Amino acid sequence: MSATATDVSQTTDQRVFNFSAGPAAIPLSVLQEVQAEMVCLPGAGASVMELSHRGKIFVDIIQQAEADLRTLLSIPETHEVLFLQGGAALQFSMIPANLLKDSQKTAQYLVTGTWGKKAIGEARKEGEVEATFDGSATNFDRIPAEGDCKISDDAAYLYYCSNETIQGVQFPTPPAAPTSVPLICDASSDFLSRPIDIANHGIVYACAQKNAGPAGLTVVIIRKDLIDRGNENLPGYLLYKNHSAAESMWNTPPTFGVYVLGKIVKWLLNDIGGLDTMAKQNAEKAAMLYEVIDANPDFYKGHAQADCRSKMNVTFNLPSDELLAEFVKEAATHKIENLKGHRSVGGIRASIYNAMPVEGVKTLAKFMTEFAAKNS
Amino acid sequence: MSATATDVSQTTDQRVFNFSAGPAAIPLSVLQEVQAEMVCLPGAGASVMELSHRGKIFVDIIQQAEADLRTLLSIPETHEVLFLQGGAALQFSMIPANLLKDSQKTAQYLVTGTWGKKAIGEARKEGEVEATFDGSATNFDRIPAEGDCKISDDAAYLYYCSNETIQGVQFPTPPAAPTSVPLICDASSDFLSRPIDIANHGIVYACAQKNAGPAGLTVVIIRKDLIDRGNENLPGYLLYKNHSAAESMWNTPPTFGVYVLGKIVKWLLNDIGGLDTMAKQNAEKAAMLYEVIDANPDFYKGHAQADCRSKMNVTFNLPSDELLAEFVKEAATHKIENLKGHRSVGGIRASIYNAMPVEGVKTLAKFMTEFAAKNS
Q1: Among A172, B11, B46, B373, which residue carries the largest CB count within 10 Å?
Q2: Mean pLDDT of A132-152
Q3: What is the DSSP track for A110-128?
Q4: Would you tell me how many other CB atoms lie within 10 Å of the CB of residue A342?
Q5: Where is the Aminotransferase class V domain (chains A, B) (predicted)?
Q6: What is the CATH number of domain A16-26+274-375?
Q7: Could you tell me which residue, B260 or B8, shows the higher pLDDT?
Q8: What are phi and psi of A125, to 5 degrees?
Q9: Of A144, A115, A207, A169, which Cα lies nearest the Cα of A349?
Q10: Position A78 pLDDT exceeds 90
């Protein structure tokens, strides 16, 4: 099969509103650029997938991606950017392996959902941990109340997940940590959706497949003084200092993922106009759906408490399993796809990352209102 | 920018003969299919990059990729296929972490080049290792002579790298191990280039970016009785049993890489006709270049001994640095690109993986003959 103009234009019309929790929607203009360059990157004579990671063309791509990311997130010179593999799951181990193991300290975790729980599980293998907050008693519907968590000045670090994709619970602002304690953020599912104060964090990391690119790329933004803490005897891939010394080329990085991330960052800078604008748009999209939930309190039951509702993943349930199934089925007739909640929570999860167009959210909000009216 | 028919046809003409050692050439027909489906995978309403890894469409893709790989390589039911991240570099640690650590045994390594050397370095952190063969004294130009290596019946495993990309040294056939000793093969750079007896191996693994797909995907083919050996206290991502139990979805797999690998495997099955044919074609391509080297013994100096010359990476040097630079420069005028050898060996490395067309090798062979005649 070869690519023709007909293929390309036909397929654009066939696109649905994709509410997948991740891997998730990518801006259409980015996909079209990737498509145009797939067989031959301009000036390269080859696909970006075929280029040596050490050649000038790819080195320019990775350096430009980092430079643009630094601009977009206002990353200070105190922090390095690493492009790694292994997803958040490998960071669950790399963070305690580098910063907790052999430290004689305790790492404090705020467990606000499934991902925080997995993270502390891996950390426990490496050293002393404390679940300073654990939301499991209320099925992870909230974040800790202000002043609720005592963070020791001597903690190895304070860890939180800024947005719990499965439960739809998001920290509106980062939790407070003493200045002596590195603040570590798993930003996997709200990375690049709003500004984040990098200077205030020891590590901010994210797998790419929500807002930043394809699955298989992990971005780690790490304060320089934390890089060298890992013991030389750790598996080489797990040592931040190896990746740092080699500028993310300790081994072959996921080159295609870095290339797509670079385009998404450019889209955020140039087409959207930066993260303040993106955050405003995301807040408006989320508000449309939460308004429908609040307007139909006997029909839709939101999962998260109002003060920590996620602007990325809107989670709610319906009065019965039958109505839930009907909701998903009817939604598909409006090109609304991938709404089913994670199997551990059930219900509906509408993921409305950066690349979900306003039109898609409007379509869903309208459908929700009509569906509630028809079935109440 | 949007993709049009003009973009596509223009860019195909601009493609060069890409002799990159990896990431490396991908079959043009595969790139064209990926291009046609980039914005909207038929039936999915979205790009493959935007699909949930747990949705039916991607699950079908990964299962079909595995099924086709099993057909192509005749993988027996005794072995599982895992799709992981982290490259060969992470396998350097995962293999000893799972199979050597706490075993009270010694792992034996045949070190025939840079990659074997890196692998044994990581293994040393996990347990007792022995370099049963070490080719460093002759700058890694050979493999062990038959009968040269004593493998203990009680070794944890016997490890080798079937093709050393940097030195251009390849095992024509796997080394012999006692049946009690799992044979472990790093096949990163000759995976899918020829048949390999999987049943005879404990593990055959490969990063994808030579013959099997984009960087960021690692294929691990592992005998089922070896999967459960890792200690529960290892970092979760490093435990083969986690990935096995979750059918490569312990975390989000590199979905785009799996999708491209699936297409490359189909190309090998349907367009090429299987690995016997592919191996024959690869042998013919390599012979064209080695013939020119042997015909000009005072001009071209091959790096590898004749009995273990790689059919994937043809490494040689020229009489002077000036001629080397001129060779690379002139080659580019014939659309011959990415010839420079790895910085640790120098000289020329022409990587002629599966996707390098015969025409590209013929063009290089002709150029080599003319260049030698002109400059001898």
Answers
A1: B46
A2: 94
A3: EE-SHHHHHHHHHHHTTSE
A4: 17
A5: 16-364
A6: 3.90.1150.10
A7: B260
A8: -70, -20
A9: A169
A10: yes
* ipTM entry: 0.96
Which member of A101, A210, A263, A285 is catalytic? Answer: A210
Q: How far is A313 from chain B (nearest CA, A)?
A: 14
Domain ranges of chain A: 16-26+274-375, 48-271
- Measured between alpha carbons, how far is B205 from B226 in angstroms, rounded to an integer? 14
Q: Which helix (H) or strand (E) holds B40?
A: none
Q: Which residues contact B332 (CB under 8 A, 6 or more apart)?
A: none
pLDDT tens column, B318-345: 999 999 999 999 999 999 999 999 887 8
Instruction: Please name which of A131, A135, A173, A176 lies closest in space to residue A153, comparing C-alpha atoms.
Output: A176
Is residue A10 annotated as involved in ligand binding? Answer: no
Instruction: Report the Cα A364 to chain-centroid distance in Å.
Output: 22
Q: B16-27+274-375, which class in CATH?
A: alpha beta
Q: Is residue B357 less than 8 Å (CB to CB) from chain A?
A: no
What DSSP character marks residue A326?
Answer: H
Model confidence at A345, pLDDT cuts 50, 70, 90, reads confident
Close Cβ partners of A49 (under 8 Å, ≥ 6 residues apart): A255, A256, B23, B26, B31, B213, B214, B215, B260
- Residue A31 contacts B where some CB pair is shorter than 8 Å: yes
Q: Give, for A22, the enclosing helix (H) or strand (E).
A: none
Is the pLDDT at B5 greater than 90? The verdict is no
Q: How far apart are CA B125 and CA B96, in angstroms?
A: 9
Number of CB pairs, chain A paired with chain B, less than 8 A apart:
277
Q: Does B231 touch chain A (CB under 8 A)?
A: no
Site of tokens 């502390």: A120
Question: Where is A105: in which H helix or E strand?
Answer: none
Which band of pLDDT confidence, cut at 50, 70 and 90, is reported for residue A121? very high
Contact of A226 with A99, CB cutoff 8 Å: yes
Query: Is B213 in contact with B206 (CB distance < 8 Å)?
Result: no
Q: To which residue do tokens 């890196």 refer?
A: B118
How many H-runs (helices) and E-runs (strands) does chain A carry? 11, 14
Q: Is B8–A39 a contact, with Cβ atoms under 8 angstroms apart? A: yes
Interface of B with A in 241-270 (CB under 8 A): 250-257, 260
Please report, as a single letter, which amino acid is at residue B189.
S
Closest-approach residue (CA) in chain A for B238: A90
CATH architecture of A48-271: 3-Layer(aba) Sandwich (3.40)
Burial call B8-27: b when 16+ CB within 10 Å, e when fewer: beebbeebbbbbbbbbbbbb
pLDDT, one tens digit per residue, over A153-201 is 999 999 999 999 999 999 999 999 999 999 999 999 999 999 999 999 9
Task: Give the span between the Cα atoms of B43 and B49, in whole angstroms.
Answer: 14
| CA gyration radius, chain A | 21
Residues of B numbered 289-328 whose beta carbons fall under 8 angstroms of chain A's beta carbons: which are they?
Answer: none
CB contact under 8 A, A122 and B11: no
Find, among A97, A122, A95, A120, the residue nearest to A204 by Cα. Answer: A95
Give contacts of A 105-164 with B, CB under 8 A.
121-122, 125-126
Q: Does B35 touch chain A (CB under 8 A)?
A: yes
